[in-house]
């Protein structure tokens, strides 16, 4: 709701002595100036997982995108602060909350009440508007359960779940996404039931949920959706990583599967890291050795790639995938050597 502008000074009785009129005017002018110069309101309560809405807490990789997303908010925020100072008791300027992974920025339109937020198992009554066609989220009021249901496996589902976990009851917010050219999408959290944090779950419950996520991830991978599969494997790993070491052996399979997804998604650095986790537990894991070799080749680390692929072929000499990949690495190495030799000839010839 727009707030009509209010004059910071107001009219004065001309019969007042000039000195008193000047003193009162200066006091109000100073007060208005001080209000306009006040810093932004403190951010709302964030997730209980060490999440900070401060832009500095975001990774440098996503900093530029997030700043671009909120560039249009800053002017409105300044105006809202002026109105706040001129009319006591009016609504505060909307807050911004930055998702830690840089996937979206949340602009709080109406603040919720209380401190509790949805957790695993919370049934949320949600009002959604502006989501693009194909997001599988119908407009209007709907019920979503955090951590349960096929709605979570799509890109928009993951974003909605992250947003809900940061909202209080009654909160209304807009979401700005990097690369999304359409108007902001809007979510309202009408109500939710009490859920549980991961540390409140028994080990058997965590393992059961992880198996469900793994099974769904495998379905998505076979259906040609490595991004959706990676989200499922990642959620399963987050559940199992909270168990005491060494943890269940299923972690090895999840890291290996996640590496396969990341190779298809063009993320060789992450793929190599997940293969490292597998090989720490099982040094002879052939799939992890092969995938790490492919990842190292993509990163330009040809010697490391050659070493991993040769280990695979030493155990399985007929592995055609490893043979082909090693052949590519050898050809690329020869090209690099030829380029280096040509550069040296130019330098010393």
Automatic annotation (TrEMBL):
Keyword Repeat attached: yes
Database matches in InterPro entries: FKBP4/5/8-like, TPR-like_helical_dom_sf, TPR_rpt
Keyword set, alphabetical order: Phosphoprotein, Repeat, TPR repeat
Pfam families, per database record: TPR_1 (PF00515), TPR_16 (PF13432)
Ranges occupied by TPR repeats: 286-319
Source taxon at top rank: Eukaryota
Record-linked PROSITE patterns: TPR
Region (Disordered), start-end ranges: 1-61
Function: May be involved in response to X-ray. Regulates p21 protein stability by binding to Hsp90 and p21.
Subunit relationships: Forms a ternary complex with CDKN1A/p21 and HSP90AB1/Hsp90.
Protein name, UniProt field: FK506-binding protein-like
């Amino acid at each position: 709701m727009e707030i009509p502008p209010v004059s910071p000074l107001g009219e004065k009785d001309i019969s007042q002595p000039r000195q008193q009129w000047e003193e009162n005017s200066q006091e109000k002018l100073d007060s208005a100036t001080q209000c306009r110069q006040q810093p932004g309101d403190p951010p709302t309560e964030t997730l209980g997982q060490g999440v900070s809405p401060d832009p500095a807490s975001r990774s440098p990789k996503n900093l530029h995108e997030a700043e671009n997303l909120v560039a249009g908010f800053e002017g409105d925020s300044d105006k809202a602060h002026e109105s706040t100072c001129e009319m006591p008791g009016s609504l505060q300027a909307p807050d911004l909350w930055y998702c830690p992974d840089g996937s979206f920025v949340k602009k709080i339109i109406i603040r919720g009440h209380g401190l509790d937020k949805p957790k695993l198992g919370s049934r949320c009554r949600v009002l959604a508007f502006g989501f693009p066609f194909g997001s599988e989220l119908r407009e209007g009021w709907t019920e979503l359960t955090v951590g349960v249901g096929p709605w979570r496996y799509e890109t928009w589902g993951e974003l909605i779940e992250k947003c809900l976990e940061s909202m209080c009851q009654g909160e209304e917010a807009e979401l700005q996404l990097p690369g999304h050219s359409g108007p902001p999408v809007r979510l309202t959290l009408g109500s939710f039931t009490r859920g549980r944090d991961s540390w409140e779950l028994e080990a058997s419950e965590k393992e059961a949920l992880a198996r469900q996520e793994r099974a769904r991830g495998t379905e998505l991978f076979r259906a040609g959706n490595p991004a959706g599969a990676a989200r499922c494997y990642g959620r399963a790993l987050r559940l199992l990583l909270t168990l005491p070491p060494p943890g269940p052996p299923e972690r090895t399979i999840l890291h290996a599967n996640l590496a396969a997804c990341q190779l298809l998604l063009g993320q060789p650095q992450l793929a190599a890291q997940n293969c490292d986790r597998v090989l720490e537990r099982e040094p002879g894991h052939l799939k992890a050795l092969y995938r790490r070799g492919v990842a190292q080749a993509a990163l330009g680390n040809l010697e490391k790639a050659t070493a991993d692929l040769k280990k695979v072929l030493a155990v399985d000499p007929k592995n055609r995938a490893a043979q082909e990949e090693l052949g590519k690495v050898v050809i690329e190495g020869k090209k690099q050597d030829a380029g280096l030799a040509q550069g040296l000839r130019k330098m010393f010839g």
